[in-house]
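User: I've been trying to design a sequence by hand for this structure and keep getting stuck. Would you show me what you'd pick, starting by listing the structure so we're on the same page?

Assistant: Good idea, let's start from the same input. This is the structure you sent:
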């Protein structure tokens, strides 16, 4: 297992790198390791709705070497992840061969709300790095039970953490602080 040398955070589909959760993580952890909040190209172009995930995955695969170089770390020392769609894209990139020290998946969109049959897990068995999933217990995109069941397919070690009463977007200071604490503790397990 590789130590965490830097952290890359990506936003959910309709948000940007200035999402308050990502900013609070950056503020809390930037003294520990380099943190970069990264908007995908569609957001930088001013669009709110993302293209299909595979095209964003291809973009991220192309961007990761330069992001690691900008942060002064090797690609294998970069922990990548983000909120919802951003975390999903990062997990798909790792499944497609991106080197990473681990994955941080905040409010992972396991399925669309009220559509539990439409799982977004087909790539899980190709993930071999340590993963942290942090979700609210009232997130309509994934219940704690669903995450517990479906993350068993992941080959790497999985840590599940839940914010009691939290929904998909952590809209309280306490929920965001809980996310930071879970992430900080998990980084300890990576030696970061």
């Amino acid at each position: 297992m590789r130590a965490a040398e830097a952290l890359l955070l990506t936003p959910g589909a309709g948000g940007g790198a200035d999402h308050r959760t990502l900013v609070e993580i950056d503020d809390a952890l930037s003294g520990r390791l380099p943190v970069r909040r990264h908007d995908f190209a569609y957001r930088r172009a001013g669009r709110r709705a993302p293209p299909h995930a595979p095209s964003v995955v291809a973009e991220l695969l192309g961007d990761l070497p330069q992001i690691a170089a900008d942060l002064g770390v090797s690609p294998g020392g970069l922990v990548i992840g983000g909120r919802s769609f951003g975390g999903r894209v990062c997990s798909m990139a790792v499944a497609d061969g991106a080197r990473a020290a681990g994955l941080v998946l905040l409010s992972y969109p396991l399925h669309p709300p009220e559509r539990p049959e439409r799982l977004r897990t087909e790539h899980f068995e190709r993930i071999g790095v340590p993963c942290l999933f942090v979700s609210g217990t009232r997130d309509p995109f994934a219940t704690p039970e669903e995450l517990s069941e479906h993350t068993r397919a992941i080959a790497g070690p999985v840590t599940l953490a839940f914010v009691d009463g939290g929904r998909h977007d952590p809209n309280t200071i306490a929920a965001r602080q809980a996310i930071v604490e879970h992430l900080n503790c998990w980084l300890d397990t990576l030696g970061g």
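That's my pick for every position. To get oriented when you compare it with your attempt: The chain has six helices and six strands. The chain has a mean pLDDT of 93.
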